Amino acid sequence: MNVVLGVTGCIAAYKAAEVCRGLQKAGCEVRVAMTEAATRFVGTATFEGLTSVPVARNVFDWPPSPIPHIDLGEWADAFLVCPCTADVLAKLACGIADDCLTSAALATTAPVLVAPAMNVHMWQNPATQANVATLRSRGAGVVMPVSGRLACGDVGEGKLAPVDDVVAAVLALRDRPLAGTRVLVTAGPTHEAIDPVRYIANASSGKMGYAVAAEAARRGAEVCLVSGPTSLPCPAGVTRVDVVSAADMRDAVMARAPWADVAVCAAAVADYTPAAPADHKLKKAEGRLGSVELVETADILAGLAASGEVGYVVGFAAETRDLLDNARAKLASKGVDLLVANDVSRPDSAFGSDTDHVWLVDDAGAEELDTLTKAEVAAAIWDRVQADLGREGGAA
Ligand code: CTP
Prior knowledge:
Oligomer: single chain
Shape: elongated
Bound molecules: cytidine-5'-triphosphate
Strand content: 25-35%
Strand order of the largest sheet: 12-11-8-13-16-17-18-19
Low-confidence stretches: none
Mean pLDDT: 94
């Protein structure tokens, strides 16, 4: 595996040499990019001695390539930033590419891993935590810093994770159990137009579907995410198709059904749509807004499952009562392989929340999971799908 090791300016930079060695011992080929600040802590000669390749420091001058950031990004099977300062973490979260390391990180399509190291207060600062959350939401891995005595004398979280843990996190990326699998995911709400300025929608944030798509990509799948209107960023390595209405979503999904091996329909599709949306903004005086005639939308999930085009189909069930009875009924009526049921009246499972408490329901029974983050629920769903497809192996 080709690993680009990005080293940034912090006292833990010397540990990057051990990480480099650990990766090489495990059979990885390593190329190093350093920020200018990093070179104040460790000399480039250290990494050049270890890798026999010049360290990439700027985008205009790197002997192995005339366009170093692009070539490094393309060469990488994994892109590790270790140690990652608060500054570079922020740049990665914002897409700032003002040196070779950050430009290559932006240019790569390989999985990105960061191993932050910094002062405890810098780590705990909401700005840093928001940047970590942003990177995670895009599919980046974070090797969490540990607690201990920091170089500045403070005690707390912020110490670079142990070298072995960083190396193990990179090596885990080699295990991509969904490589070669094409996954179609739906996410978010749909908007059903009443007229050009009004619509019917629901409270779905799209977070669950996006987490499912991000996790599939992290496990090596080729992922197409058909998304209703949300404000979420597209996860790394995922192709997103934006749609607005239930009818648009159905068309986008059915057009891709022959392509997909697995489909996960997490979207909260509107069940009804206005029968005759107006082509102009309705005036109150017209009297048409008091009651809008609705017609049922097509059930995308049931249609997809019935089409037989996709080998394995996962549906969701959002319920507020009789959860398992409703879920079992939906499993049968929709004809899906697996149903993820959640009680959206629970505070830990509400629309928009970052956690979910779900049951995985299939013909064999119902498995209740703990209250988990949406990323963890996504991982549990893929663990189950992989087990059912005989693709076990555990993800990175
Ligand atoms: N779904 C769909 N197309 C629809 C409605 C729902 O594909 N027109 C999918 C959702 O993406 C989800 C599953 O069906 O995977 C269940 O959605 P849910 O809202 O829980 O159930 P409904 O089928 O809408 O039934 P009800 O509202 O009566 O509970």
